[in-house]
Structure formats: structure tokens, C-alpha cells
Specification:
Belongs to the ABC transporter superfamily. This protein has about 450 residues and is of the alpha+beta class. It folds into 2 domains: about 240 residues, 3-Layer(aba) Sandwich (Rossmann fold); about 140 residues, Coagulation Factor XIII, Chain A, domain 1. Strands 11, 12, 14, 16, 17, 19 and 20 form a 7-stranded antiparallel β-sheet that branches. Strands 5-6-7-3-8-9 form a 6-stranded mixed β-sheet, with helices on both faces. It is globular and about 90 Å long. It binds adenosine-5'-triphosphate (ATP).
């Protein structure tokens, strides 16, 4: 196999033998060849693909289309009926829950067992154990048998292991779906870093994760490779297909500009021009302080002491409403003198996408505010809270010193605040926008 190819799959097929009754399996063994007591089910049928070293490939498709089967075949946990698979480099996998760990062993024992399967020596695991434990961040559960773990804890530990075994190829099946926002972002940071040199094969039903992580995508349909290509293109074709499944063949993603119209006929107007019941995007969020558990790093020259979100509309403590005016306040202390300290924040969604943020650079650029060692200082940012879809978000905070062209980060906290948005009626996109008018009209 060419050295720039990480995974090569040729005419790969997997057939499961389905027996209607358990005794049929026994009969088949006894009367081997004379009669067939099973039905064949082809979960994968002559699939061929090539993944180049350093490529990130998402696998999409409906339930039962063969995605997990393909991943298991690539990882060698399942034998193919026919066809060939070649991998170039160390493959580490996060497959479905329950695979990989011995349920009776503790988390710690499973770390040692699993890492040794990936070729690490006991000394190497000893050296990395504290990093693995910190990545998993499951506290004292690490010494409990994994059969008592929640699915989230299980994935945390499994991900922590594969993140520390020097894999060349990572194979991940839907793992991010069970993690909370903080853990998901930790995984996303790891994967983004891994992607710089490594190869990723990633199964997900969450199209935003696929688009976020993968350059290419493969669409499997009833065990066949239906389409492969750039992730955006494949995601659009798949979305078109799912729309047609729901709404029939007329559903299309065609641009409205394809069918221009000149005259406009409006739908009959009612007394109330538009009933905005469906367009009420109000969303409520609860905010919790995560400063003590936040992931990040610091130089030691200064640190963030607190980060908080305050309501200026005084709605209610800890509950904020999309659209209301709020203030993010970040307080820090300098351990050495800073000539131009900068404080900033970024709001991120669970996949680590930056939604918005700001820092005090513009202010410090024009009017620097030096601080002496030991001085406490703060910045606050007042703004209208956007309307966000349901889900978890985090606020990243940072402390730096310098100007636009030359600045040094001193404290960086990925998840200083955690925001939980509930009861949002936003159905599409990353934010809700207040609509002034919505009209349905005929073009004649
Ligand atoms: N051990 C098995 N015996 C019989 N059929 C199986 C077995 N494992 C999987 N299948 C069948 O093979 C098909 C493909 O399964 P697979 O788990 O690969 O699908 P998938 O695309 O990953 O689905 P999902 O999105 O639901 O996870 C399904 O119809 C499934 O029922």
C-alpha cells in the first residue's frame, strides 16, 4: 500500500447469518451443508474506499446502514466475509459502549489493560497514568469496576486512553454524543490537535460534528457506499435525501432564486398581521461557575480570580433570558507588573465553535492601564444576550499582556462558566434572531 494511504478498503462485505430460532443454529451445525437453516443479511456489500494519511473522514447514513460494521472491520474487532482492509499505522478506536473494557475490572485496571493492548509498556502507562486520569476526570470512580459506570463516565475513560496511546489512526463511533459540554470540548480540542498529523474516521448522526471535524465524508446506504466526497457536499446530499424521505420527492434544497417571479401576491392578511407564536425564540439559560474545575493553563505571572455573568434587567438570579442585557465580569490578579493587561472572553457551543466574544485590547491599545504586582483588576463587557438553541455552552476567559501585535497569554480557562440553555424554541441554526415580519406570498 502506498505510504500516504492510511486505510484502504477493497470490496469489503460483511454477511450476518440470521437464524429464526436458536435451535436452527444447532441444526445447521449438525446438518452442515445439507440444508440451510439461516437467512443471509448483508450488512456491508462490496464497499471500497481509501483514506489518505492525515485525512478526516466522516461516515454518515441512516440507522442500520452499516457504519458501525465498517468501523469494527477497520479496527479488526469483526471479521469480513470477503474483501480486504489494510491500515498503515497504529489504530485506536472508540467503538460502541461496552466494547474494549472488562466490566469487572476497575477503571485503573482497564487503563493498564487497554493501553497494553495498544502496545504501551507498563512503564509507559505508569508515566502517562496521571494524564489519562486527569483527562477522564471521573474522580474516585477510577477505582470502581467499570460495570458501575454511567455511559458518560465510560466514554470519558475510553477516550482518555485512546488519547494517550500515540495512535496514527483514530476511529470514533458517536462517542461525543454522550459527553457533557466540558468533556465534549476537551475531546474536540484533542481531536483538532490530533488532526494536524493523524487520520480520523468518525461516525456520527450529528451533521454539525461531521462538518466541524471532517474534510471528507462517506454516505453508506443499506450496506452500500452511496456517495463519497467533500463533507459539505455529502452532508447536503444526505440532508436532501432525508427531507425527501419525510416530505416526498418534491422536497428540495434548490435556491429560491432558481425560480424568479415578478408580481407578488400576498397571502390573505389577517387582523393581526403576523402571529408570532411560532417565532417566539425566547430562551432561558442557567449559568454556573466552573472556575475551580476549569481546564486551561497559566504562566504563573497572573491569574483570573473570578468570572461571572450578571443580569442588568434583574430577571432572576442565575436564570437569564435571551435578549436581555447582561454583563460578563472577569477579575484577575497580577503576580508581576503588567504594562498592558488584556482580559477577554469567548462563548462556545458544545462542539467548541466560537459563537462570539470580545477582549479589552481595543481599550488597552489606545489607553494602556499598567498594573503592579499584587494588584487586582477587572474588565466587564455589557451586551444583549443572544437567543440560543437548547444545549450547553461554555465561556472561555483569558488574561494576557501586550498590544495588538505582541502579546503573551498568562491565564487561559476553557470553561470558566457553563451555560445551560433550556426551553428555547429555536429550530435552526446557531442563534435566534427576532423577526419583525414574516410573509407568505404568491409570485404571479
Ligand atoms: N451481530 C449481528 N447479527 C445480525 N445482524 C447484525 C449484527 N450486527 C449488526 N447487524 C445488522 O447489520 C446492519 C448494520 O448495522 P450497523 O450497526 O453497522 O449499522 P449502523 O449504520 O452503525 O447503525 P446505527 O446508526 O443505528 O448505529 C443492521 O441492520 C444491523 O441490524
Amino acid at each position: 500500500m502506498c505510504s500516504d494511504v492510511a486505510i484502504k478498503v477493497s470490496n469489503l462485505s460483511k454477511c450476518y447469518l440470521i437464524y429464526d430460532r436458536p435451535q436452527d443454529r444447532l441444526k445447521q451445525m449438525l446438518f452442515r451443508g445439507k440444508r440451510q437453516y439461516y437467512k443471509e443479511f448483508w450488512a456491508l456489500d462490496s464497499v471500497s474506499l481509501e483514506v489518505k494519511r492525515g485525512e478526516t473522514v466522516g461516515i454518515i447514513g441512516r440507522n442500520g446502514s452499516g457504519k458501525s460494521t465498517l468501523l469494527q472491520l477497520v479496527c479488526g474487532t469483526l471479521n469480513a466475509t470477503s474483501g480486504e482492509i489494510t491500515t498503515n499505522g497504529k489504530v485506536a478506536a472508540l467503538l460502541e459502549l461496552g466494547s474494549g473494557f472488562n466490566p469487572e475490572f476497575t477503571g485503573r485496571e482497564n487503563v493498564y489493560m487497554s493501553a497494553s493492548i495498544y502496545g504501551l509498556t507498563k512503564q509507559q502507562v505508569d508515566d502517562r497514568y496521571s494524564q489519562i486520569e486527569a483527562f477522564a476526570d471521573i474522580g474516585e470512580h477510577i477505582d470502581q469496576p467499570v460495570k458501575n459506570y454511567s455511559s458518560g463516565m465510560y466514554v470519558r475513560l475510553a477516550f482518555a486512553v485512546i488519547a494517550h496511546v500515540d495512535a496514527d489512526i483514530l476511529v470514533i463511533d458517536e462517542a461525543l454524543a454522550v459527553g457533557d459540554a466540558v468533556f465534549t470540548q476537551k475531546c474536540m480540542r484533542f481531536i483538532r490537535n490530533f488532526k494536524k498529523n493523524g487520520t480520523l474516521l468518525f461516525v456520527s448522526h450529528d451533521m454539525s460534528s461531521v462538518l466541524n471535524l471532517c474534510q471528507h465524508a462517506i454516505w453508506l446506504h443499506q450496506g452500500n457506499l452511496r456517495q463519497a466526497g467533500p463533507a459539505k457536499e455529502i452532508a447536503e446530499s444526505y440532508l436532501q435525501y432525508t427531507l425527501q424521505e419525510v416530505y416526498g420527492d418534491n422536497a428540495s434544497l434548490k435556491s429560491i432564486s432558481d425560480e424568479p417571479g415578478e408580481n407578488v401576491e400576498r397571502a390573505e392578511e389577517t387582523d393581526t398581521p403576523t402571529d408570532f407564536a411560532l417565532l417566539n425564540y425566547d430562551s432561558q439559560m442557567q449559568v454556573s461557575d466552573n472556575l475551580n474545575d476549569a481546564n486551561g493553563w497559566k504562566s504563573g505571572s497572573g491569574e483570573i480570580l473570578s468570572a461571572s455573568l450578571e443580569s442588568l434587567s434583574g430577571v432572576s438570579e442565575n436564570v437569564y433570558v435571551g435578549g436581555e442585557t447582561v454583563r460578563i465580569r472577569i477579575r484577575a490578579v497580577a503576580h508581576v507588573a503588567f504594562d498592558q493587561p488584556i482580559l477577554g472572553f469567548l462563548l462556545r457551543d458544545r462542539l467548541g465553535q466560537d459563537l462570539f466574544g470580545e477582549n479589552t485590547l481595543a481599550f488597552t491599545h489606545i489607553k494602556p492601564m499598567p498594573v503592579a504586582a499584587g494588584e487586582v483588576f477587572e474588565a466587564y463587557f455589557t451586551f444583549r444576550l443572544p437567543m440560543l438553541p437548547n444545549g450547553q455552552y461554555v465561556v472561555m476567559t483569558s488574561l494576557a499582556n501586550g498590544d495588538l501585535y505582541n502579546n503573551v497569554q498568562h491565564h487561559w480557562l476553557h470553561d470558566a462558566l457553563i451555560l445551560n440553555v433550556s426551553s428555547s424554541t429555536i429550530r435552526w441554526g446557531l442563534v435566534g434572531v427576532p423577526f419583525d415580519e414574516v410573509v407568505l406570498q404568491k409570485l404571479t
